[in-house]
Amino acid sequence: MPVRVLGRLVDSHPVVPPEARRGTVRRITEVGEEVLERACRPVPAGEFGSAELAALIDDMFATQYIADGAGLAANQVGVDLRLFVYDCWDEEGVRHVGHILNPVLDEADPGERRLLEESEGCLSVPGAAITVPRADRAVARGFDKDGNPLVIEGRGYFARCLQHETDHLDGRLYLSRLSKRDRRAVLRESAEAREAVLAKRERKAAELAG
After folding, report:
1. For the domain that residue 56 is a member of, what is the CATH number?
2. Domain residues for 9?
3. How many domains does the chain have?
4. I want to staple 77 with a disulfide (CB 3.0 to 4.6 A). Which of 26, 70, 123, 186 is the partner?
5. Active site includes 165?
6. Is residue 173 within 8 Å of residue 124, measured between CB atoms?
7. What angle, rounded to 10 degrees, do the helices at 180-209 and 51-66 form?
């Protein structure tokens, strides 16, 4: 199947990304924690290319992998930086893998997009999902870890991923897009499923480490 790594088409890519193999699993922050409720600070240009930044990205890939996530923002591992990673399929069966720093979503002409009402969950609200309207197309502009410009376009579910993760970096959980009634329902569902979800993550983390 086709794969785009950092927006570039490649012949193949490992099921477990190399970054996840190198990384260390971190704890995923959960709804109610302050770090998820404020906008993240931009990654300073002076940190591009640093070993610390590369290690953070590796850790985020490892954490996303063991949680079966499509994307993960830095504040979901407690880090106040405008950065997210992704490993997500789009509606045409293309797998997208990569990271993006200081992303900004293009404001598409409303006439060029439509809203898709599909199920959406969040690793910081474990075990719950609900229908959330999102645009069927999104373009994120930012930089890779070395400071090279990136333009990442997503359609369908990958567009949803780009919007969801950028929301995180703006200090916004998908719960904020729901009615109070739906928000309460999602939180109840998460409370009931949380223990089993975290246990599954622990098992997968042990497998990755082994």
Report:
1. 3.90.45.10
2. 3-209
3. 1
4. 26
5. yes
6. yes
7. 110
pTM as predicted: 0.95
pLDDT (tens digit per residue) in 64-76: 999 999 999 999 9
pLDDT tens digits, one per residue of 140-174: 999 999 999 999 999 999 999 999 999 999 999 99
Q: Which one-letter amino acid corresponds to residue 101?
A: L
89-107 per-position pLDDT tens digit: 998 999 999 999 999 998 6
